[in-house]
Every structure is written in C-alpha cells, then in structure tokens.
Amino acid sequence: MATVATNLKRGQCINYKGETGIVLGLEHRTPGKGNALIMATIRSFQTGKTKDIRFASGDKVEIVQSDRQKLEFSYKDQTGYHFMDTTTYETISLNEDLLEDAKDLLIDALEVEVLYVDHKAVSIELPSNVELEVTESAPGVKGDTATAATKEAKLETGLLVQVPLFIGPGDKIKVSSDEKKYVGRV
After folding, report:
1. β-strand 160-164 against 172-176: which pairing, if any?
2. What's the pLDDT tens digit per position in 139-177?
3. 88 vs 6: CA distance, rounded Å
4. What is the set of domains in the chain, with CATH numbers?
C-alpha cells in the first residue's frame, strides 16, 4: 500500500529504497521558496541504524503492514529472551540481537510492545520509564548537597547510572528507557 509522504505518521513501518524501517519522527518544513518537505527520521530493521530522509510532499511511500503485540518479560537463558502473551499464556522467544538496547532494563513481569512485520519480530518498545532497584552505590557525603552532585549506582539488571547522593542500596528508582538516566525516586 502506498501513500504520499504528507500522510506519514510516527510509528508506521515503511519500505524505502529496499529497506524496511519504522518512522520515529516527522517534521514538515516549508521553505521560503519551493515546495514543502517532510523530514522523516527512520530506523532501519536490517541495520538498526537511524537516518533522516527528506521527502517532497508529493513523493509516494510504501507502507508495510505491521502488527503490535503486548508481551510480558518472563526470563532469559542461553537460547534467548522469553516473553509471555498475557491473553493466551503462550511463551514467545526473541533473539538477543533484537533486544540490544533494552536488555539491561528488562525485569520480571515488565510489559513491552513488540512490533511484527511479516510475522517476524523486528522491534521492541519499552515503557517510557522503568522502575529498578539499586543494588550497589557508594555512601553519600553529608553536607555535600550544595550542588547537584551525583554518584554511580548499580541496578538490579547490572545497568550503571548516575544518581543523586541520597540514593542508596535497596532504593527503587525510575530510569528513562530512552536515555538510560535517573528520572526520580519511586
């Protein structure tokens, strides 16, 4: 199915010059002279790389049929990462390659959304923030709060993040899944 570039939407899957990818962002630009342009940020499913593509407003773009499925993370072993479909209780296994950016944020029962193109999982989307427990951190120094000082903390998944000095082992914190940074205390 093809559409004009002005009808593109964030989250759609497209095929462009032989590559299939997802539209991460769109910006409509109208220069002083000439026709309007659409700047689309696309992440390729084949390479995993993100690139900006410029379309003229009348360009045709092929939309690829895709499905989304909510799954709950169960466990990881040597064969891959295993998720459960909460409606059918079926276990679905995904390769580590697909989870490259997400694997250090996965905890038991975390609900994720998996994108399928041609019945093949191509992308995983985490919630915007993930709640994780601090397992290790250096003690904060009393009176050292005049500045926004931070220290490194190790989380239950092994991820290392910078946290404020008052955060200690056993505390639950919110971590941004996009930037993998401390957002706040739970």
Report:
1. unpaired
2. 766 655 556 788 899 999 989 999 988 888 999 999 998
3. 38
4. 2-63 (2.30.30.30), 66-125 (2.40.50.140), 129-185 (2.40.50.140)
